[in-house]
Write a structure and sequence with these properties.
The protein has two domains: about 1-190, no CATH class; about 200-425, no CATH class. The longest helix has about 35 residues, at about 15-50. With about 425 residues, it is α+β, with helices and mostly antiparallel strands. A hairpin with a 2-residue loop joins strand 6 (about 165-175) and strand 7. Helix content is about 35%, strand content about 25%. It has helices at about 15-50, 55-60, 75-95, 225-240, 245-275, 305-310, 315-330, 375-385, 400-405; strands at about 1-15, 120, 125-130, 135, 150-155, 165-175, 180-190, 200-205, 210-215, 220, 280-285, 330-335, 360-365, 370, 405-410, 415-420. It starts with a strand and ends in an 11-residue tail after the last strand.
Length: about 425
């Protein structure tokens, strides 16, 4: 076992919310208003010279303005950095040829401003670990006196005994009608020695939420249970009279809890399977660009249900869970592009889009390999562990058996865990 310092984000309830709600509302509204002022300023500069100012320029333009000093200076800087990041993301879509991509808009619903997340960096908060309190700084305009601040008493959402130390950043986040604290801190953990020298690849998807290849065996994790929960809560939510009603907030919280549990359980199962097979490196497919056509760069229309699934699927959240759970077990979890892995034969390397006969079936016209399409993609991702990859390197022979017939692990709602398909009861269909 070795000591390792990692960064973790702990969510916390605000115990004295009734006392600090108004102050947090004021800060959240101020962050939205500053975003809008910065967006308007960027638009004027854009119209005048055809260039969009970056975060540094916006800080110079707006420093000292009324909206800027509503928040602590570092909190205001973070709002402007978020706008710059949003424009950068838009540039990426435009560079890829997606003409339908829109630039970041204003944070305003009719005449109402939403409560934006407020970030407090090192100089914007003080942490009292002994008493479970965090003092958040206000901007000059929102202070009633020079020493005015927001004092939040918190309770960590997680296992009992969880302590908060070495806090690096605090975010006040408005979640499902209440304020929460997201506390970013450095944590020293006991990291296991690497389980071995093996390499595994993970292909992320929607119908099959994950496919894992170990080079001589593959696992398949269908996402049916997760999709059933998503559709169930969306339908229930649509029947609520008001989007902010107590019932709507209750459904939102239940949906969030279900999602969190599902992906924690999935990532834990994948890491445990890797440990059991002495895997030291886990390659996860990078889904960047999945929403654009690989040739034209235009946004792809996946249909009504496909678009709903794609835009609501927390790929990045699963990646983060795999990353930090792998660190604890001594597994190096890295990302590699998964571009063209679904159209490439994992045995001979022949690439042809037409080889994917059906959603889950892949047949290579050159060598005759028959494989589950997602397992083939996971094996191609695993082979990209070679840095730099050598496309001319010979590929070892692989049995069609484990590529075509992977071990299927289903989510068992009755026990809240993943298990082999034959062990999971097919009852309890109601989410």
């Amino acid at each position: 076992m070795a000591k390792k310092v990692v960064t973790r984000t702990q969510r916390a309830r605000i115990c004295n919310l009734s006392q600090v709600r108004d102050d947090l509302d004021s800060l959240g509204f101020a962050a939205s208003k500053l975003w809008n002022v910065a967006r308007w300023t960027a638009g004027r500069v854009w119209d005048a010279c055809g260039q969009i100012p970056g975060a540094g320029d916006l800080k110079s333009y707006l420093k000292g303005s009324g909206r800027y000093v509503d928040l602590h200076s570092q909190s205001s800087q973070r709002v402007l950095e978020e706008l710059d990041e949003a424009f950068t993301g838009w540039y990426g879509h435009r560079d890829n040829g997606n003409e339908k991509a829109n630039p970041p808009g204003y944070r305003k619903h009719n005449e109402q401003h939403p409560r934006s997340t407020v970030t407090f960096k090192q100089k914007g908060f003080k942490h009292d670990a002994d008493n479970g309190r965090i003092r958040l700084s206000k901007g000059r305009n929102l202070k009633e006196s020079r020493s005015d601040f927001v004092l939040c008493e918190y309770d960590v959402i997680g296992p009992r005994g969880t302590t908060i130390e070495n806090v690096q950043q605090v975010r006040a986040v408005y979640e499902h009608g209440v304020w929460r604290l997201h506390i970013v801190c450095d944590v020293a953990i006991e990291a296991s020695d690497t389980p071995g020298n093996g390499v595994a690849g993970v292909d992320l998807g929607i119908c099959n939420v994950a496919a894992v290849s170990f080079g001589d065996e593959s696992l398949l994790y269908p996402g049916g249970a997760f999709k059933e929960d998503e559709y169930y809560f969306l339908k229930k939510r649509a029947r609520c009279d008001e989007s902010t009603s107590r019932e709507a907030r209750r459904l939102d919280q239940r949906r969030t809890d279900r999602r969190t549990h599902f992906f924690h359980t999935l990532s834990k199962d994948i890491i445990e399977e890797c440990v059991g097979r002495e895997v030291g490196t886990l390659i996860v497919g990078d889904l960047g660009g999945i929403r654009e056509d690989t040739e034209t760069g235009e946004a792809v229309n996946w249909g009504t249900h496909g678009n709903l699934d794609l835009h609501g699927w927390p790929f990045n959240r699963l990646w983060k869970m795999l990353k930090y759970k792998g660190e604890i077990k001594g597994i190096d979890v890295v990302r590699k592009s998964e571009r063209d892995t679904s159209r490439t034969c994992a045995v001979c390397g022949h690439e042809d889009e037409s080889q994917r006969k059906e959603r889950g079936l892949y047949v290579c016209e050159k060598c005759g390999t028959v494989a589950n399409a997602d397992c083939g993609g996971a094996e191609n991702i695993r082979q990209r562990a070679e840095v730099p990859p050598n496309p001319s390197a010979p590929r070892s022979d692989r049995s069609n058996g484990w590529l075509a017939q992977p071990v299927v692990r289903l989510f068992d709602r009755s026990e809240g865990r993943f298990a082999p398909r034959e062990q999971v009861a097919q009852t309890n269909r109601e989410p």
